[in-house]
C-alpha cells in the first residue's frame, strides 16, 4: 500500500485549473442552477414531498421513506419539464429493507451537464438489504430434528419459521438460493468436513474415459473413506461439491444414494462434463446432521424452517437471509451515480448495468451477495470507483462492452477498488475483475483471497495496470491470477505495472501468474513485479506477445512458453485454420480486412506462416532473481526471441532485508542506481503507484493486507 500521492494530485489539479481557465464558464457555477434535491429517511413517508431532510413539526411533510419513491418523483418532475439542473437524492443513515429490485430505465437518466446522484448522507452509513432480518428464534423442540443433530449441537441450535416472515422461495443448494448472514459475515451451509475436502478413494462408474492420459469414469459413482456419510441416511436433500476430474473445474451434485456398508456415493445426473477421477476431492453439504459448530445453518425447504447455530448471542446479533435476486438494475440509463451506500443480502448480482452511458458506482461497499457485485454489459464509459467488495458468491466486477467487429472501445473502467474473499459458491472462473469486449480498463485495484482467478480478460485492447493481486488460485491449479485464452484475434491488451505475489496454487502444486492460455496472442506483459509466483509469465502456444521489463523474484519459473498447438492442442488450431481457409474469418472476425488488418498487421498472413507455431513472441529486458528463470519448451525455442535479460545476478535492491515473508510491500523491491538491471534496458518500475490510493471517494481507507 502507499501513502497519499500528493504529487499526482497536484499535477491533476494543475491540469484542471489550466483547463478551467482555458474554457470560459467552467467555474461559472453560480450561473448554473443547483440540483433538485430529494431526501429519503427511515422515518420518512412516501406520501410526503421528499423535499426536506426531516419531518416538519406537524408531521405532514418531510423525506420519502424509499429510494423507489424518490426515483418516481424525479420521473414526475421530468414529465412536467426539462431537468437542466439534475438531481441529488440523499439517503439518511439507517438500514433499508428493499422488497423488490430497484429498477431504472432510460427515463431515469441524467445528462453530462445535469447528472443524477443517489448518495448516502455525508459521513453516515446507509445499508440497503435485499433480504429479511430474522428475529423470531426458538429452541428446537422437534424430537426428529434433535435426533438428527450432532449431540454437541443440540443445546445450541435454534429454529425460525421463514414462511412466517413471508419467505417461501428458498432456491437451490446448487447456487442462487437463500443464504444466511450474521453481523455482516456469511455463515456456512452445514457441511462435512468443516474445512477443506476429502479424497475420492475410487471411481466406480461403468464407462471409462481418458483425457490427456488421465483415466476416470463418466458416471458419478465413487467410493469414500471412513464412516461419516453414514450419518446422512435421513437427509432428504444431501449434496456434494467437488473438483471431480480437473483442479480447475468443479460442480455441485445432489446425492442420489449412499451405500454406507460399501462406502459409496452416487450422484444425480447431469454428471460432470469431464467425469470423475480417483484422488480428486469433494465435501458434503446441505446437511442438518452436520451442524456441529457455530455459524452453520440448514433450511428444511419443505417446512420452511431455518436451523442455525449462532456464533454469538442472538439478542445482540442481526441475522439476515437473502431474498431478492438483485438490488439495483439499470437498463439504458445514463449519467446516474450511486455513492457511499452499503449493498448486501441479494441472491444474485447486486448491481446490474446494461446499455446506457457514464453511470458510476462510487465509494460503495458491496458484500454478502450470492452472485457478482457489479455486472456491466454494453453501453459506454460506465465506472466502478473506490468501492469495497467482499463475500460475493461469484465474482467482483464484470465489465463487458465495445464492438469487436469494428474494434470500437466501450471505455468502461474499474479503479481503486478493494475486492477480496469472493467466489464463495461459484468457485472457478469468477474473478475479482473481468474485462470483456473492447477497450476497457482496470487500474489501482487490490484483489486477494480467492479460490481461482484474480482477474480475467477477453477481447481486444484492454488495459490492466497498477493492480496488486495476492493469495488467489489457492484452491485450484492450472489456473491464472490474470487469465485469458483461446482466440487468435483477441489482441492488443496491455498487462502493465502490476504487482503479483504469493500465488502458488492448491497445496502449493503450482498455478500461473499472467496466463495466456491455448494460443492466445498479441498481449503485452510489461513492467510487472512478480514475487513468489509459479509460472509467472505464461505463453501457452500463442503468438506475437511481448514479455519485457518485468522483475521476477523467487518465481518457479519466471517464464513459460510452449508449442502446444504443434502437439497435444493441435485440434484447436486445426479448427481455426480450417475456418480461416473455408470462411475467411477467425472466430467470426474478418482478420485480414480493416480494421483488424490495420490494427494488427501480423494477423493478415497468419494462415500462411506456420499458424500453429508460437511465432513472434519476444522476451527482453527482464530481471529474474532467485527461483528459476525459464521453462521454455524445446519445440518453441526456435520461434521465440529471448535476449538481453538479467538472470540469476543480484539486481541490488535498495533494502534487501525488507524482501521476505513478512513484508509484501511493492516498494521493497526498488533497485539501486548501480543495479546491473539498467544495462539490459530494464526501466524503473512505478512501485509506489501500485494498488489502492487514498481518495475522498473511497468507501474506506486503503487496507493493509498481508499474504
Can you walk me through this structure?
There is one protein chain. By secondary structure, the chain is mostly beta strands. Helices cover 8% and strands 31% of the residues. The protein folds into 4 domains: 93-107 and 114-130 and 327-466 and 686-701, Single-stranded right-handed beta-helix, Pectin lyase-like (Pectate Lyase C-like, 3 Solenoid); 131-190 and 291-320; 198-285; 471-554 and 596-683, no CATH class. The protein is built from 5 helices and 58 strands. The strands form 7 sheets. It has a 14-stranded parallel β-sheet, covered by helices on one side. A hairpin with a 4-residue loop joins strand 23 (296-300) and strand 24. The radius of gyration is 27 Å and the shape is globular. It starts with 5 loop residues before the first helix and ends in a 60-residue tail after the last strand.
Amino acid at each position: 500500500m502507499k501513502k497519499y500521492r500528493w504529487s499526482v494530485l497536484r499535477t491533476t489539479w494543475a491540469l484542471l485549473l489550466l483547463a478551467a481557465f482555458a474554457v470560459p464558464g467552467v467555474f461559472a457555477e453560480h450561473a448554473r442552477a443547483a440540483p433538485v434535491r430529494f431526501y429519503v429517511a427511515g422515518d420518512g413517508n412516501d406520501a410526503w414531498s421528499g423535499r426536506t431532510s426531516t419531518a416538519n413539526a406537524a408531521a405532514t411533510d418531510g423525506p420519502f421513506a424509499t429510494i423507489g419513491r424518490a426515483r418516481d418523483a424525479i420521473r414526475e418532475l421530468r414529465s412536467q419539464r426539462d431537468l437542466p439542473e439534475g438531481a441529488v437524492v440523499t439517503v439518511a443513515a439507517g438500514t433499508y429493507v428493499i422488497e423488490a429490485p430497484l429498477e431504472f430505465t432510460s427515463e431515469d437518466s441524467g445528462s453530462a451537464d445535469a447528472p443524477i446522484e443517489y448518495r448516502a448522507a455525508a459521513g453516515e452509513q446507509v445499508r440497503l438489504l435485499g433480504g429479511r432480518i430474522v428475529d423470531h428464534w426458538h429452541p428446537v423442540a422437534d424430537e426428529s430434528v434433535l435426533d438428527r443433530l450432532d449431540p454437541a449441537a443440540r443445546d445450541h441450535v435454534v429454529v425460525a419459521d421463514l414462511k412466517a416472515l413471508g419467505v417461501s422461495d428458498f432456491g437451490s443448494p446448487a447456487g442462487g438460493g437463500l443464504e444466511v448472514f450474521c453481523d455482516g459475515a456469511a455463515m456456512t451451509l452445514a457441511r462435512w468436513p468443516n474445512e477443506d475436502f476429502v479424497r475420492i478413494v475410487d471411481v466406480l462408474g461403468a464407462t471409462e474415459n481418458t483425457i490427456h492420459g488421465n483415466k476416470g469414469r463418466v458416471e458419478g459413482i465413487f467410493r469414500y473413506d471412513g464412516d461419516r456419510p453414514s450419518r446422512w441416511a435421513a437427509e432428504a436433500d444431501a449434496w456434494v461439491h467437488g473438483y471431480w476430474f480437473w483442479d480447475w473445474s468443479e460442480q455441485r451434485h445432489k446425492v442420489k444414494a449412499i451405500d454406507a456398508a460399501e462406502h459409496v456415493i452416487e450422484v444425480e445426473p447431469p454428471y460432470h462434463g469431464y467425469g470423475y477421477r480417483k484422488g480428486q476431492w469433494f465435501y458434503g453439504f446441505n446437511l442438518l446432521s452436520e451442524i456441529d459448530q457455530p455459524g452453520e445453518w440448514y433450511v428444511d425447504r419443505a417446512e420452511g424452517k431455518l436451523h442455525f447455530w449462532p456464533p454469538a448471542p442472538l439478542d445482540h446479533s442481526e441475522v439476515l437471509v437473502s431474498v431478492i435476486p438483485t438490488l439495483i438494475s439499470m437498463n439504458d440509463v445514463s449519467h446516474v451515480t450511486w455513492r457511499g451506500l452499503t449493498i448486501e443480502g441479494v441472491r444474485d448480482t447486486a448491481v446490474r448495468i446494461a446499455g446506457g452511458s457514464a453511470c458510476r458506482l462510487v465509494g460503495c461497499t458491496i458484500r454478502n451477495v450470492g452472485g457478482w457485485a457489479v455486472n456491466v454489459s454494453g453501453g459506454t464509459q460506465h465506472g466502478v470507483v473506490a468501492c469495497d467488495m467482499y463475500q460475493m458468491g461469484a465474482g467482483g466486477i464484470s465489465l463487458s462492452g465495445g464492438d469487436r467487429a469494428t474494434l470500437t472501445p466501450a471505455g468502461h473502467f474499474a479503479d481503486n477498488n478493494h475486492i477480496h474473499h469472493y467466489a464463495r459458491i461459484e468457485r472457478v472462473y469468477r474473478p475479482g475483475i473481468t474485462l470483456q469486449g473492447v477497450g476497457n480498463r482496470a487500474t489501482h485495484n487490490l484483489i486477494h483471497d480467492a479460490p481461482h482467478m484474480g482477474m480475467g480478460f477477453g477481447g481486444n485492447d484492454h488495459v490492466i495496470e497498477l493492480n496488486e493481486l495476492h493469495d488467489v488460485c489457492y484452491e485450484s491449479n492450472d489456473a491464472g491470477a490474470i487469465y485469458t485464452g483461446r482466440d487468435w484475434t483477441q489482441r492488443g491488451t496491455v498487462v502493465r505495472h502490476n504487482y503479483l505475489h504469493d500465488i502458488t496454487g492448491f497445496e502449493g502444486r503450482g498455478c500461473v501468474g499472467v496466463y495466456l492460455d491455448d494460443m492466445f496472442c498479441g498481449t503485452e506483459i510489461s513492467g510487472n513485479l512478480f514475487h513468489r509466483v509459479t509460472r509467472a509469465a505464461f505463453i501457452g502456444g500463442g503468438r506475437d506477445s511481448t514479455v519485457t521489463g518485468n522483475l521476477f523474484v523467487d518465481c518457479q519459473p519466471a517464464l513459460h512458453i510452449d508449442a502446444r498447438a504443434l502437439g497435444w492442442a493441435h485440434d484447436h488450431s486445426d479448427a481455426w485454420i480450417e475456418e480461416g481457409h473455408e470462411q475467411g474469418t477467425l472466430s467470426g472476425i474478418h482478420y485480414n480486412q480493416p480494421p483488424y488488418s490495420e490494427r494488427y498487421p501480423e494477423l493478415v498472413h497468419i494462415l500462411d506462416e506456420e499458424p500453429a507455431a508460437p511465432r513472434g513472441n519476444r522476451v527482453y529486458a527482464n530481471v529474474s532473481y532467485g527461483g528459476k528463470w525459464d521453462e521454455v519448451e524445446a519445440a518453441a525455442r526456435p520461434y521465440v526471441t529471448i535476449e538481453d535479460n538479467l538472470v540469476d545476478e543480484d539486481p541490488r535492491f535498495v533494502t534487501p532485508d525488507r524482501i521476505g515473508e513478512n513484508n509484501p510491500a511493492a516498494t521493497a523491491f526498488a533497485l539501486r542506481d548501480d543495479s546491473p538491471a539498467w544495462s539490459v534496458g530494464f526501466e524503473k518500475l512505478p512501485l509506489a503507484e501500485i494498488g489502492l490510493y487514498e481518495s475522498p471517494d473511497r468507501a474506506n481507507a486503503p487496507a493493509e493486507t498481508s499474504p
